[in-house]
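Reopening: structure tokens for the magnesium ion complex, inputs below.
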Amino acid sequence: MVKIILKNPKESQDFGEKLGRILKGGDVISLTGDLGAGKTTITKAIGKGLEVEEYITSPTFALINQYEGRVRVYHFDVYRLEGVEDLYDLGFEDYFYSDGVTIVEWGDKIHGLLPEHTIHIQIEKGKELNERIVTISGQGERYSEIVEELRKS
Ligand SMILES: Nc1ncnc2c1ncn2[C@@H]1O[C@H](COP(=O)(O)OP(=O)(O)O)[C@@H](O)[C@H]1O
Ligand SMILES: [Mg+2]
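Re-run output (same inputs, fresh job):
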């Protein structure tokens, strides 16, 4: 488990962009945190790091948006998901186990459906205004690699 403090939106953007540059096809990122925590902010920045040129918006009603970057990027937002049936109808496994990068906002809502190799990013508001505390957790070789890369400045 790794904890990172992001003091302002700029630091969150830098973090997301750096993570995006590290990510490879097949990686799955789950973002968890209250409304306004910064999940979409970080998603947009991950997209930038993955060289997505299109403007990324939250797929709150569509459930998933797809982008072309250095690799294909699938952006889920499961906030309004009422039952997992909608995810099965969508064939979510084809995305989660693909050669693209998958980012899931509110991933904790579907924790049991996320692949074992998911990188979990939890965002909490800190004591200071605009401060966010990010906790990164996961398992496996890819998790270790990503954490190691993030530690490099
Ligand atoms: N350190 C920070 N990181 C990310 N967002 C921040 C930070 N400080 C303040 N904010 C603000 O919090 C809001 C986060 O919104 P958003 O990314 O849409 O959150 P979520 O997708 O989790 O609901 C934005 O208005 C952003 O400017
Ligand atoms: Mg959001």
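The first helix runs from residue 9 to 22. DSSP finds five helices and seven strands in the chain. Marking as resolved unless the reporter disagrees.
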